[in-house]
Design a protein that fits this description.
Elements (H helix, E strand, L loop, with lengths): L10 H4 L5 H18 L4 H19 L8 H19 L2 H28 L2 H8 L7 H18 L3 H16 L8 H19 L2 H17 L5 H21 L2 H14 L3 H22 L2 H16 L6 H21 L2 H16 L8 H19 L2 H17 L4 H18 L2 H16 L8 H19 L2 H17 L3 H18 L2 H16 L8 H15 L6 H16 L8 H19 L2 H17 L6 H20 L2 H16 L5 H17 L5 H15 L6 H9 L5 H11 L3 H11 L2 H8 L5 H6 L1 H18 L7 H26 L13 H4 L8 E6 L4 E6 L4 E5 L5 H17 L8 H12 L6 H14 L9 H24 L9 E6 L12 E3 L4 E3 L5 E4 L19 E5 L11 H12 L5 E4 L4 H7 L5 E5 L1 E3 L9 E4 L2 E4 H5 L8 E5 L17 H8 L3 E5 L7 H20 L11 H13 L5 H4 L2 E5 L1
Parallel strand pairs: 1-4, 4-7, 8-9, 8-10, 10-14, 14-15
Antiparallel strand pairs: 1-2, 2-3, 5-6, 11-12, 12-13, 15-16
Helix pairs in contact: 2-8, 2-9, 3-4, 3-7, 4-5, 4-11, 5-12, 8-9, 9-10, 10-11, 11-12, 13-14, 13-15, 14-15, 15-16, 16-17, 17-18, 18-19, 19-20, 20-21, 20-39, 21-22, 21-23, 22-23, 23-24, 23-25, 24-25, 25-26, 26-27, 27-28, 27-29, 28-29, 29-30, 29-31, 30-31, 31-32, 32-34, 34-35, 38-39, 41-44, ...
Protein name: CHAT domain-containing protein
Organism: Piloderma croceum (strain F 1598)
Length: 1223
């Protein structure tokens, strides 16, 4: 029985009154129903289900001819009627009436038989059977108690209010009012609910009276009459349950079975026959089967009342059959009718109807199909919402998980939202777990997950996703060779071919696409998709030797596919783009202008056809740009170049496209614009650099960020700066270098930027920023080796967190004085780094090497004309060779001679000095000497080239002179310069010595921004930690480290020194937050494959870069890394400066002493002795408190210490590696 007007779709509810009374009556009616709706408590319904279960159990134990079987049937019927009143499940009322009829019939038969036989004692047993003690009676009593609790749960005052409101509404709707019948039904609902609560018969009697009046007033032709009769039947059955009066039962059964007439049987037979034909069609694909099935479903449905359960079932089957026919014929009216039918059925299955989830899934599926045809985002959003509701209702979630995941993937394809993709993969994995190997849906589940993994590979480039997808496709194909599966598998093979170049992948892809196409004959609705996919794969193979005919077939298939997608088909733009791609390829092969012109026209038409903001705009515009570039090359007409620039701007501006795709488009634009000397080159470079932080977004873990930056980003900032320099924009060059280098560290510093001023202006926004930054920083070092599903969920969470961070930044930037908050620094800000000394930026690009000298007043450009990019890389290789050969006194083998000869020949020798320096190398290469070349000879040559070609021009421009107390000069080296010891450049000959250290105290900085700002002075007492590792398991012994500690103890106050001999990882980590100076005398290890795994080797394991980055070190001032390879960066990412030294610098230490390569064990104590002597000498003479030494003098202290070591005439390889980083 209904407690809200579900009948509004009939002629009784569609007519609206215009009077004030109507407005008031509607408000009263709606308010009354809202009060009654509160009693549809899921907990109560759950208890009601329990009661019905118990009544059924009792009935099972009272099999005929048990004397109380009729009583059990009556109890069960009463509970079913109660549930019908709350849920409107027609099947409950059906079962209740059948139970009542069976119970009455059984009782009559039993009594008549006993009376006729004169068996009074057995008759008495029936009369007094309520006193029996049995399990059945206990179950019955428990069920009745549950029903009492349910009925007593409602607030009586609220029910009284509902009845009063319905009475008032009815008074305002006289007999002529179009909604009077609805009000009568509503009042009956309220009276019945109050009867359940109070047990007063006056309520149910009034409800019956009201419903009888309504039935009498309602015309027999009105569908609403049947609804009223159903409600009357239920109330009469409830009265009989209470009174036991046969007249009530007789009227109830008369009304009920009058509704369930002979049409029920006929309709059931028609629907069953339709099911057989529908199933037959799904096996055979024969259209006559589906046509006949649809006809039978229509006939069976027409025989039944609108809310009859069989009619609802027939509507479901008819709607599904129409969808199938639509899939074969493409007739839009079938899809529209199917969706309309599903909506109608869903409206008649309100929660908690047991079939509501089925209806939700059916309607969602229809809307998803409609979205494919219409492209209306509202259809897809509604579909996803319906799938989510269905998932919450279903106990077996396997299908709803799959359906929701498919819809989410559809939305990802349209919007590019990675959250949808991650959620889709997660749900597909959960669904797959619910389908065992033998399950008939497992192949579909595998197919769905594979599609999502492939989509993510195209976003992220992680090959694990692609390989997993292909393995799963093969498993699925062993279970089924459906057209969907074959089609998707072929696409994935083609994608792998593009990344691996394996020809067998391409051949297999073509084979499976041909097989899929055969399974989609015309007029199959998905034939167009198969045509496109086969054509794309053939076009890809046409680039292979001897396969030109493939391109001709591909173009033919693309034209056929395009014809199947007329305007305004939502996927027409895809077909246009694909055909244009094939014609562009044909132009490249044939050189025929008409192919080029048609391709360009099709690309423009594709852009016009695509929905605004669609992710595919980036790819289409990029393809158009490449074709326009070829047109310019072919015709030399300048208009094509301008159109190329416009197309690339469109591609870059498509924010819904994958960042990696936009980044590649920007690089493509920059490369060709620069090659053509076009004015847009700098704009293109800037666009690419601005995308770098998104490539390595903060939501990724550290390793993923580092991998993202490896994908073609290195050298971008240097090339951009070179482009700016050529146009005379030196300020822009510096800004681009700063923005495009050390992206990894710039992001890390963003999360630690002090924002106290923001707290004063917008405290809630500041608090939110701090919350997000802390979560992102902790998330960066998360464990990505856990279970795959949990890793994917974490990745999705942190990606959303990254979006929150970006959104919060935009809110801050809308505030006054915060417009540039955490944006890349402008030159005016960067110049603050040169207040206490100039900064020399050495830029190495393939077009030119230059020095940019940043001072507090401007920028000076010094072209390094004598040194090319190739020459710099050769110097790096020569130096590395010298380092690797140190201590080996062996003759050159042939391979070594060839290597050195090749390197030396590519480095210029423009002066007599350099000619002199290279003579030892040339003699050994030409075999003029039998003694081996010494590493020092190579060092002298490399350092001499650096002096004459790089450093001396800078020193001369700065007008520095030799000095006993030289000024500080900071070097910011980019590209291969980062691996060269600029601080040691000089001429080292017996007759002449001149070097950098004669003129300046050198220090390095990975970025200019890292020199800005200040770290608050510690309020704690000065503490220094010395970690000494004389014997590390698995490593060469370092006995001199103990001597190093003794040297430290000579200069550092005992109470300030924390000694860790040996050092344990957790112990060191525990001390990091409190110390000001950290000294590590141990082995270091650079991990080239994963720089974040680079580590200091301690007694119980590795102290890794990633672990150090987790620590908050508010007091950190200086770190001394007397260890191996602590300033050796990643050769693949020199501009990201990812090594131990820079890690400590960015982690908060103001300065770091590190080594460019392995040092000799005896040199550690010597350097430490002089270094700390110099550092603490001034501190002891000027301070009496515990504030510690002046760390700003650490570069000068190292300068002195290295000079002393060098004075001992040690080899270059021993004194050169020590460097200072930071302030």
């Amino acid at each position: 029985m209904e407690d809200s007007p579900v009948h509004v779709g009939t002629n009784q509810g569609d007519t609206a009154a215009s009077s004030e009374d109507e407005d008031e009556s509607s408000q009263l009616f709606d308010l009354a129903n809202s009060i009654l709706a509160e009693f549809k408590d899921p907990v109560s319904l759950s208890n009601l289900d329990t009661a019905i279960y118990l009544f059924r159990e009792a009935l099972d134990q009272r099999a005929a001819p048990h004397p109380l079987r009729s009583e059990s049937l009556k109890d069960l019927a009463g509970a079913l009627v109660t549930r019908f009143s709350l849920t409107n499940q027609y099947s409950d009322l059906d079962q209740a009436m059948v139970s009542l009829a069976q119970g009455l019939h059984a009782l009559r038969e039993r009594v008549e038989a006993l009376m006729g036989a004169g068996r009074q004692s057995e008759l008495n047993a029936i009369i007094f059977a309520q006193h029996e003690k049995s399990e059945a009676s206990e179950l019955t009593e428990l069920a009745k108690a549950t029903l009492v609790n349910i009925n007593q749960s409602a607030q009586l005052s609220s029910l009284d209010t509902a009845v009063t409101l319905h009475r008032e509404a009815l008074l305002r709707r006289p007999k002529s009012h179009p909604k009077r019948l609805v009000s009568q039904a509503g009042l009956a609902v309220a009276l019945y609910a109050r009867f359940r609560r109070t047990g007063y018969m006056s309520n149910i009697d009034e409800a019956i009276s009201v419903l009888r009046d309504a039935v009498e007033a309602c015309p027999e032709s009105d569908m609403y009459r049947a609804e009223l009769l159903i409600d009357l039947t239920a109330v009469l059955a409830a009265k009989f349950d209470r009174t036991g009066k046969i007249l009530d039962l007789h009227e109830a059964t008369t009304q009920f079975f009058g509704l369930a007439n002979k049409n029920y049987v006929e309709a059931s037979q028609l629907v069953n026959s339709g099911n057989e034909l529908f199933d037959q069609f799904r096996d055979s694909g024969q259209m006559p089967d589906i046509e006949k099935a649809i006809s039978l479903f229509r006939k069976g449905r027409a025989l039944l009342h609108v809310r009859h359960p069989i009619r609802l079932y027939a509507s479901d089957r008819l709607a599904n059959a129409l969808i199938f026919r639509f899939g074969r014929t493409g007739q839009r009216k079938d899809l529209d009718e199917s969706i309309s039918l599903h909506r109608g059925v869903l409206a008649l299955r309100p929660e908690p109807h047991p079939d509501r989830a089925t209806s939700l899934n059916n309607l969602a599926s229809g809307l998803s199909t409609q979205f494919d045809k219409s492209g209306r985002h509202e259809d897809l959003d509604e579909s996803i919402s319906l799938y989510r509701e269905a998932q919450e209702l279903e106990s077996d979630q396997s299908m709803s998980l799959s359906n929701l995941a498919i819809a989410l993937l559809q939305r990802f394809d349209e919007s590019g939202q990675l959250d949808d993709l991650d959620e889709a993969i997660s749900m597909h994995r959960r669904a797959l777990e619910l389908f065992p190997a033998s399950h008939h849906y497992r192949s579909d589940a595998l197919n769905n997950l594979c599609g999502a993994l492939t989509a993510r590979f195209e976003q992220s480039g992680h090959h694990e996703d692609l390989d997993e997808a292909i393995l799963m496709y093969r498993e699925a194909l062993e279970l089924s060779r459906s057209d969907h599966l074959l089609n998707n598998f072929g696409d994935t093979l083609k994608i792998r071919f593009y990344h691996s170049g394996q020809r067998e992948d391409l051949d297999e892809a073509i084979s499976v696409h041909r097989e899929a196409l055969k399974l989609r004959p015309a007029p199959h609705s998905l034939r167009c998709s198969s045509l496109n996919n086969l054509a794309r794969t053939l076009a890809a193979r046409s680039d292979q030797p001897g396969q030109r005919d493939d391109l001709v077939e591909a173009i033919s298939l693309h034209r056929e596919a395009l014809a199947l997608r007329p305007v305004p088909h939502p996927r027409r733009s895809i077909s246009l783009n694909d055909l244009a791609n094939a014609l562009h390829s044909q132009f490249k092969q044939s050189g025929q202008r008409e192919h080029l012109d048609e391709a360009i026209d099709l690309y423009y038409e594709s852009l016009d056809a695509v929905v605004s903001g669609h992710p595919s705009i980036c790819l289409i515009a990029r393809n158009l740009g490449g074709t326009l570039l070829d047109a310019h090359s072919h015709t030399r007409e300048p208009e094509y170049l301008n159109k190329y620039t416009a197309a690339m701007r469109i591609a870059i501006a498509c924010e819904s496209a994958p960042t990696s795709q936009r980044f590649r488009a920007a690089k493509y634009w920059a490369h060709h614009a620069e090659h053509l000397n076009h004015e847009s080159a700098l704009e293109a470079y800037h666009a690419a650099i601005q995308l770098l932080p998104r490539m390595a977004m903060l939501g990724l873990d550290l390793q993923s960020r580092q991998q993202a930056l490896t994908s073609g980003s290195d050298g971008l900032a240097r090339d951009a700066a070179a482009c700016a320099i050529r146009s005379g924009q030196y300020d822009k060059a510096v800004e681009l270098l700063e923005e495009g280098r050390a992206v990894f560290w710039s992001q890390a510093l963003q999360l630690r930027t002090p924002i106290a001023h923001l707290r004063e202006v917008a405290p809630e926004l500041e608090q939110n920023l701090r919350r997000i930054s802390l979560a992102l920083e902790q998330g960066s070092i998360r464990d990505v080796s856990k279970k795959l599903s949990s890793v994917e969920q974490e990745a999705s969470y942190f990606r959303r967190l990254n979006d929150e961070w970006l959104a919060a930044l935009e809110k801050v930037r809308q505030l006054d004085d915060f417009r540039d908050f955490l944006r890349p620094s402008r030159l005016s800000t960067l110049q603050g780094a040169a207040v206490d000394g100039s900064v020399v930026i050495l830029n190495a690009s393939e077009t030119a090497c230059v020095a940019l000298i940043l001072t507090s007043t401007g920028i000076q450009h010094i072209p390094l004309l004598d040194l090319s990019f190739v020459a710099v890389t050769k110097l790096v290789k020569l130096l590395r060779y010298a380092i690797s050969q140190d201590g080996r006194d062996v003759l050159f083998v042939e391979s070594n001679r060839a290597l050195v000869d090749s390197l030396v020949q590519q480095v210029p020798s423009l002066s007599d000095t350099l000619q002199l320096l290279r003579q030892p190398l040339e003699r050994h290469v030409k075999r003029e000497s039998n003694t081996s070349v010494q590493p020092d000879d190579i060092f002298r040559y490399v350092l001499g080239v650096l002096w004459e070609s790089v450093v001396e021009p800078v020193i001369r421009w700065l007008d520095f002179e030799k000095s006993e107390d030289p000024p500080k000069l900071r070097w910011c080296s980019t590209g291969p310069f980062a691996f060269l010891p600029i601080h040691a450049a000089g001429v080292y000959l017996t007759e002449r010595t001149e070097c950098v250290s004669d003129y300046v105290v050198s220090s390095y900085t990975p970025t200019i921004s890292s020199l800005l700002g200040s770290i608050p002075a510690s309020t704690d007492s000065f503490k220094m930690m010395a970690v000494i590792q004389p014997d590390t398991p698995g490593q060469k012994s370092l006995p001199c480290t103990l001597e190093e500690l003794r040297k430290i103890e000579l200069h550092v106050p005992d109470k300030a020194l924390v000694r860790l001999v040996p050092g344990f990882v957790e112990e060191v980590i525990a001390h990091l937050p409190a110390i000001s100076v950290a000294h590590f005398a141990c082995h270091g290890q650079q991990d080239i494959q994963n720089p974040l795994e680079s580590a200091l080797l301690l007694q119980d394991g590795q102290l890794k870069v990633s672990q150090i980055m987790q620590q908050s070190m508010p007091n950190a001032s200086l770190a001394f890394l007397s260890a191996c390879e602590t300033a050796m960066g990643d050769e693949n990412l020199p501009d990201e400066v990812i090594h131990l030294g820079s890690t400590l610098l960015f982690a908060g230490f103001r300065g770091v002493v590190a080594t460019m390569w392995s040092i000799a064990d005896p040199d550690g104590p010597k350097i430490a002795d002089t270094f700390y002597e110099s550092l603490f000498k001034e501190a002891s003479s000027t301070t009496t408190n515990s504030s510690g030494p002046d760390i700003t003098q650490s570069a000068r202290a190292l300068h002195i210490a290295v000079a002393k070591l060098r004075s001992e005439n040690v080899s270059f390889v021993r004194w050169v590696p020590f460097i200072h980083l930071g302030r």
